[in-house]
Amino acid sequence: MKTKDLALGGILTALTIIILYISTIVPTSTMTFYGITAIITIIAYIRASIKTAILVYTSSSILCFLFLPPQTYLMYILFFGHYGILKGIIEGLNKIVLEWILKLIVFNTCLFLGAFLFNFILNINVFEQGFIMQLVLGQVIFVICDYALTLAIDGYYKYFSRF
């Protein structure tokens, strides 16, 4: 790994931790902050390599686990941290139907794993009344958020890729 990529990874890791810490302080827009952290791993993937993106995700996950509350690190580790990397890999297939099937499999796997961990670690029962409705609504929100993430990536390429 080049020194430049390592330095970029360190800066992006610090930025990720700062944003996640802010999400614990500010009572609103928590999901927006999580979405920004997904963009950060994508930036590491675009500007450097997949190794740098994995480094950012791994180091941020370790620091989250050590310094942030469980609901924050669970959300980041289970979905938002690695989704940017997986999105880049999946969209490299250039087969739109297969891409969406794989994305939904990743989302639902993370969703159910997260539900069990939230129940086990935080004692929050997410399998209660209306779970099926929440599941369907989650799928719709995921598709919208994935599209918004795609727009953010396009904006990054349009405005910042030359730097």
Describe the structure.
The structure is a single chain. With 163 residues, the chain is mainly alpha-helical. The chain has a single domain (3-159), classed as Arp2/3 complex 21 kDa subunit ARPC3, CATH 1.10.1760. The chain contains six helices and no strands. The chain has helices spanning 3-25, 30-47, 50-67, 70-91, 96-121, 131-159. The mean pLDDT is 92.
Could you list some keywords that capture this structure?
Arp2/3 complex 21 kDa subunit ARPC3, 83% helix, mainly alpha, 163 residues
The CATH architecture assignment turns out to be Orthogonal Bundle
| Low confidence ranges | none
Give the domain tally: 1
The DSSP helix count reads 6
Provide the succession of SSEs.
Answer: HHHHHH
pLDDT averaged over residues: 92
Distance between the termini: 20 Å
Radius of gyration: 16 Å
**DSSP summary, beta strand count:** 0
